[in-house]
Protein backbone atom coordinates (compact mmCIF):
# COMPACT_ATOMS: atom_id res chain seq x y z
CA UNK A 1 0.00 0.00 0.00
CA UNK A 2 2.75 2.43 0.92
CA UNK A 3 4.53 1.80 -2.38
CA UNK A 4 1.33 2.51 -4.32
CA UNK A 5 0.66 5.71 -2.33
CA UNK A 6 4.22 6.95 -2.96
CA UNK A 7 3.83 6.24 -6.68
CA UNK A 8 0.51 8.17 -6.85
CA UNK A 9 1.99 11.10 -4.95
CA UNK A 10 5.04 10.98 -7.24
CA UNK A 11 2.75 11.11 -10.28
CA UNK A 12 0.84 14.03 -8.71
CA UNK A 13 4.06 16.01 -8.42
CA UNK A 14 4.97 15.06 -11.98
CA UNK A 15 1.52 16.19 -13.16
CA UNK A 16 1.88 19.54 -11.38
CA UNK A 17 5.29 20.12 -12.95
CA UNK A 18 3.94 19.18 -16.39
CA UNK A 19 0.95 21.51 -15.88
CA UNK A 20 3.30 24.32 -14.87
CA UNK A 21 5.44 23.80 -17.98
CA UNK A 22 2.38 23.71 -20.23
CA UNK A 23 1.03 26.86 -18.60
CA UNK A 24 4.33 28.68 -19.23
CA UNK A 25 4.30 27.51 -22.87
CA UNK A 26 0.69 28.69 -23.32
CA UNK A 27 1.52 32.14 -21.87
CA UNK A 28 4.59 32.42 -24.11
CA UNK A 29 2.54 31.46 -27.18
CA UNK A 30 -0.08 34.09 -26.33
CA UNK A 31 2.64 36.72 -25.87
CA UNK A 32 4.26 35.78 -29.19
CA UNK A 33 0.91 35.99 -31.00
CA UNK A 34 0.22 39.38 -29.40
CA UNK A 35 3.67 40.66 -30.45
CA UNK A 36 3.23 39.57 -34.08
CA UNK A 37 1.07 42.57 -35.03
CA UNK A 38 3.66 45.29 -34.27
CA UNK A 39 6.42 43.04 -35.65
CA UNK A 40 4.44 42.62 -38.89
CA UNK A 41 3.92 46.40 -39.17
CA UNK A 42 7.64 47.03 -38.66
CA UNK A 43 8.57 44.45 -41.32
CA UNK A 44 6.09 46.02 -43.75
CA UNK A 45 7.53 49.49 -43.12
CA UNK A 46 11.13 48.29 -43.56
CA UNK A 47 10.42 46.37 -46.77
CA UNK A 48 7.96 48.88 -48.24
CA UNK A 49 5.27 46.22 -48.63
CA UNK A 50 1.63 47.20 -48.13
CA UNK A 51 2.38 50.66 -46.75
CA UNK A 52 -0.96 52.18 -45.84
CA UNK A 53 -1.91 55.64 -44.76
CA UNK A 54 -2.78 55.43 -41.04
CA UNK A 55 -6.04 56.74 -39.69
CA UNK A 56 -5.59 60.26 -38.41
CA UNK A 57 -8.00 60.22 -35.54
CA UNK A 58 -10.09 58.03 -33.26
CA UNK A 59 -13.77 58.39 -32.43
CA UNK A 60 -12.87 59.26 -28.82
CA UNK A 61 -10.92 62.33 -29.99
CA UNK A 62 -13.75 63.66 -32.15
CA UNK A 63 -16.33 63.44 -29.35
CA UNK A 64 -14.37 66.10 -27.42
CA UNK A 65 -14.20 68.63 -30.24
CA UNK A 66 -16.44 71.66 -30.51
CA UNK A 67 -17.42 73.55 -33.62
CA UNK A 68 -15.98 77.06 -33.93
CA UNK A 69 -18.86 78.94 -35.61
CA UNK A 70 -16.94 82.23 -35.53
CA UNK A 71 -14.83 81.33 -38.58
CA UNK A 72 -14.79 79.27 -41.75
CA UNK A 73 -12.04 77.50 -43.64
CA UNK A 74 -12.32 76.87 -47.37
CA UNK A 75 -11.18 73.37 -48.29
CA UNK A 76 -10.21 72.92 -51.94
CA UNK A 77 -10.05 69.41 -53.39
CA UNK A 78 -7.62 68.26 -56.06
CA UNK A 79 -6.91 64.91 -57.76
CA UNK A 80 -3.89 63.65 -59.67
CA UNK A 81 -3.47 60.28 -61.32
CA UNK A 82 -0.58 58.14 -62.31
CA UNK A 83 -2.26 55.36 -64.21
CA UNK A 84 -5.08 54.49 -66.58
CA UNK A 85 -8.06 55.90 -64.68
CA UNK A 86 -10.24 58.90 -64.22
CA UNK A 87 -10.06 60.29 -60.69
CA UNK A 88 -11.73 63.46 -59.41
CA UNK A 89 -13.61 65.00 -56.47
CA UNK A 90 -17.37 65.53 -56.93
CA UNK A 91 -17.02 69.15 -55.76
CA UNK A 92 -13.98 71.38 -56.11
CA UNK A 93 -14.31 73.12 -52.70
CA UNK A 94 -16.43 73.58 -49.60
CA UNK A 95 -16.51 75.87 -46.59
CA UNK A 96 -16.38 74.27 -43.13
CA UNK A 97 -16.23 75.56 -39.58
CA UNK A 98 -13.28 74.24 -37.56
CA UNK A 99 -14.50 71.25 -35.54
CA UNK A 100 -17.40 70.57 -37.93
CA UNK A 101 -17.67 67.10 -39.52
CA UNK A 102 -17.73 67.19 -43.33
CA UNK A 103 -17.67 64.71 -46.18
CA UNK A 104 -16.31 64.82 -49.71
CA UNK A 105 -16.63 62.06 -52.30
CA UNK A 106 -14.00 61.21 -54.91
CA UNK A 107 -14.93 59.27 -58.03
CA UNK A 108 -12.57 56.83 -59.70
CA UNK A 109 -13.00 54.85 -62.92
CA UNK A 110 -10.62 52.09 -64.03
CA UNK A 111 -10.48 52.66 -67.80
CA UNK A 112 -8.80 49.32 -68.52
CA UNK A 113 -10.09 45.84 -69.20
CA UNK A 114 -8.00 44.37 -66.35
CA UNK A 115 -8.18 44.53 -62.57
CA UNK A 116 -5.87 47.12 -60.96
CA UNK A 117 -4.56 47.64 -57.42
CA UNK A 118 -4.12 51.28 -56.48
CA UNK A 119 -3.31 53.54 -53.55
CA UNK A 120 -4.08 57.19 -52.89
CA UNK A 121 -1.58 59.41 -51.08
CA UNK A 122 -2.79 62.74 -49.64
CA UNK A 123 -0.90 66.02 -49.53
CA UNK A 124 -1.86 69.39 -48.06
CA UNK A 125 -1.25 73.04 -48.80
CA UNK A 126 -0.17 74.92 -46.82
CA UNK A 127 1.96 72.11 -45.43
CA UNK A 128 1.22 73.07 -41.81
CA UNK A 129 -2.46 72.27 -42.47
CA UNK A 130 -1.64 68.54 -42.39
CA UNK A 131 -1.44 68.77 -38.60
CA UNK A 132 -5.00 70.14 -38.38
CA UNK A 133 -6.78 68.15 -41.10
CA UNK A 134 -8.25 65.10 -39.32
CA UNK A 135 -9.68 62.25 -41.39
CA UNK A 136 -12.17 59.84 -39.79
CA UNK A 137 -12.75 57.79 -42.94
CA UNK A 138 -10.71 57.81 -46.11
CA UNK A 139 -10.10 55.57 -49.10
CA UNK A 140 -6.42 56.44 -48.63
CA UNK A 141 -6.26 54.25 -45.50
CA UNK A 142 -5.93 51.11 -47.62
CA UNK A 143 -5.17 49.91 -51.11
CA UNK A 144 -8.07 49.84 -53.54
CA UNK A 145 -8.72 47.02 -56.00
CA UNK A 146 -10.66 48.15 -59.05
CA UNK A 147 -12.15 45.57 -61.35
CA UNK A 148 -11.95 46.03 -65.13
CA UNK A 149 -13.88 49.19 -66.13
CA UNK A 150 -15.20 49.62 -62.56
CA UNK A 151 -16.46 53.02 -61.38
CA UNK A 152 -16.52 53.74 -57.67
CA UNK A 153 -17.37 56.62 -55.32
CA UNK A 154 -15.08 56.87 -52.31
CA UNK A 155 -15.83 59.13 -49.32
CA UNK A 156 -13.52 61.13 -47.09
CA UNK A 157 -15.02 62.11 -43.72
CA UNK A 158 -12.98 64.81 -42.00
CA UNK A 159 -12.91 67.86 -39.77
CA UNK A 160 -10.49 70.74 -39.28
CA UNK A 161 -9.03 70.92 -35.78
CA UNK A 162 -10.17 74.03 -33.90
CA UNK A 163 -6.53 74.70 -32.99
CA UNK A 164 -5.74 75.61 -36.59
CA UNK A 165 -4.06 79.05 -36.74
CA UNK A 166 -6.49 81.86 -37.57
CA UNK A 167 -4.39 83.01 -40.53
CA UNK A 168 -5.06 79.69 -42.35
CA UNK A 169 -8.22 80.44 -44.30
CA UNK A 170 -7.79 77.95 -47.18
CA UNK A 171 -6.55 74.36 -47.23
CA UNK A 172 -5.98 72.32 -50.36
CA UNK A 173 -6.36 68.55 -50.01
CA UNK A 174 -4.76 66.84 -52.97
CA UNK A 175 -4.66 63.10 -53.66
CA UNK A 176 -2.36 61.30 -56.05
CA UNK A 177 -3.88 57.98 -57.13
CA UNK A 178 -1.38 55.49 -58.53
CA UNK A 179 -1.10 51.81 -59.42
CA UNK A 180 0.55 49.71 -56.73
CA UNK A 181 3.47 47.66 -57.97
CA UNK A 182 2.74 48.24 -61.64
CA UNK A 183 2.28 44.50 -62.20
CA UNK A 184 -1.05 44.95 -63.99
CA UNK A 185 0.34 47.61 -66.32
CA UNK A 186 2.30 45.06 -68.34
CA UNK A 187 -0.76 42.78 -68.53
CA UNK A 188 -2.89 45.66 -69.78
CA UNK A 189 -0.35 46.60 -72.45
CA UNK A 190 -0.13 42.98 -73.61
CA UNK A 191 -3.94 42.79 -73.82
CA UNK A 192 -4.10 45.99 -75.88
CA UNK A 193 -1.37 44.75 -78.25
CA UNK A 194 -3.36 41.57 -78.96
CA UNK A 195 -6.39 43.61 -80.10
Automatic annotation (TrEMBL):
Keyword Transmembrane part of the UniProt annotation: yes
Q: Which Gene3D superfamilies match?
A: Ctag/Cox11
Please tell me one Gene Ontology term that the record gives under cellular component. Answer: plasma membrane
Looking at the UniProt entry, the stretches that span the membrane are 22-40
Which Pfam families does the annotation name?
A: CtaG_Cox11 (PF04442)
Molecular-function GO term, any one? copper ion binding
Membrane topology summary: Single-pass type II membrane protein
State the function annotated in the UniProt record: Exerts its effect at some terminal stage of cytochrome c oxidase synthesis, probably by being involved in the insertion of the copper B into subunit I.
Write down what this protein is called. Cytochrome c oxidase assembly protein CtaG
Amino acid sequence: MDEHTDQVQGNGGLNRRMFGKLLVIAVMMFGFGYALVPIYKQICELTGINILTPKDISLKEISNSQVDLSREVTVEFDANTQGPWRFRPVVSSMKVHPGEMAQIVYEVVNKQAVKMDAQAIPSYAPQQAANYFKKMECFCFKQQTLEANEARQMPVVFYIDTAIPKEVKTITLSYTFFEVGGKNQSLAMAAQEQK
